[in-house]
Amino acid sequence: MTTKNDEKIIVKGKKSLGKKFIQFVKKNPAGFVGLLLVVLSVGSALFAQWITPFDPTKASLMDRLAPPSWSDPTGESVFFLGADQIGRDLFSRIIYGAKISLMVGFFGVLISLVIGTILGLISGYFGKWMDDFIMRTADVQLAFPFILFAIVVMSVLGTGVWKIIIILGLTYWVGFARLIRGQVIALKEQEFVQAARAIGGTNFTIIRKHILPNVLSSILVLGTMYIAEFILLEASLTFLGLGVDPTIPSWGGMLADSRNYITTAWWTAVFPGVAIMITVLGFNLLGDWLRDRFDPNLKM
Q: Which of 259, 271, 274, 270 minimizes the C-alpha distance to 85?
């Protein structure tokens, strides 16, 4: 049984949460917009089968290049964003395409994050020949343009979502490794690390308990921005015919299919492009806010 005091506390708690949310929006409008766009994109991907009104792979030549229902002068179109060159619902394909783009972004970043974090910690903490070997390997990796490297690999191995993810993960670890290495070099000379070493802490314990927690914010910021970049790279490779299988709905594939219809069916190119723009913008704005939030140099 709740008392009046308990009810007052609950009401005050709700008001304080509401005030904090309003203050957050006022102080960080760009971060809020980025978070909103990311939630919209992720939510669309997760609930695609319940949101989409049509099967994204079902073709209907009778509806070929049907315009959006809200701009059709005849009123016959039943597709909210129109149909593509073989009569597939564009809205449904865009929603399902979000699943592919976000999958590439998240898993690609996860692979590069794990590899880069481990190598960056080893390079920065132990130094000497380990540092030289890892950094020279990173320099060699950076010497190859990614698009050229991806085109060569995909031409040999063939297309596929997981092949793109692996290529991205094995290429972009360098950014994480270099960032973490620099921070670890500074952190290992701090007093709290020296104290942990003085009381007999092992290297693994010091890295796990004292160094890694202090670089997690930088990893989070860079990872968020890399997700946006991976989405663009996946769309670019698929546009070139070296990414996702053409039978799978993807934003890059839709842009490639629309090349011959830009002047006659503008919606086939505009709406997939807008989907890419919104998602990439959302992750970039969110990454900028996280950087402003966690970077101590920007708070001074």
A: 259
Range of the domain at 167: 51-299
| Longest Cα separation, the chain | 80
Integer distance in angstroms from the first to the last C-alpha of the chain?
49
Q: Which residue has the tokens 């063939």?
A: 158
How many structural domains are present in the chain? 1
CA gap 100, 98 in Å, rounded: 5
Beta pairing partners, 83: 89
Residues 96 and 55: their CA atoms lie apart, in Å, by 10
This prediction's pTM: 0.85
Query: Residues 67, 69, 72, 78: is their CA dihedral positive or negative?
Result: positive
Q: Whole-angstrom Cα distance, residue 102 to residue 222?
A: 16
Q: Tell me how far apart the alpha carbons of residues 136 and 145 are, in angstroms, rounded to a whole number.
A: 16
In a domain, 127, yes or no: yes
Banded model confidence at residue 300, pLDDT cuts 50, 70, 90: very low
Domain CATH code at residue 271: 1.10.3720.10
Backbone angles phi, psi at 10, to 5 degrees: -65, -45
Identify the CA nearest to 250 among candidates 88, 63, 112.
Answer: 88
Residue of 124, 127, 140, 282 lying closest to 218 (CA atoms): 124
Do residues 209 and 196 touch, judged by C-beta distance below 8 A?
yes
Express each pLDDT in 13-33 by its tens digit.
555 766 776 776 777 788 888
Residue 21 lies in a domain: no
For 114-158, the pLDDT digits (tens) are 999 999 999 988 878 888 999 998 888 888 888 888 888 887 877
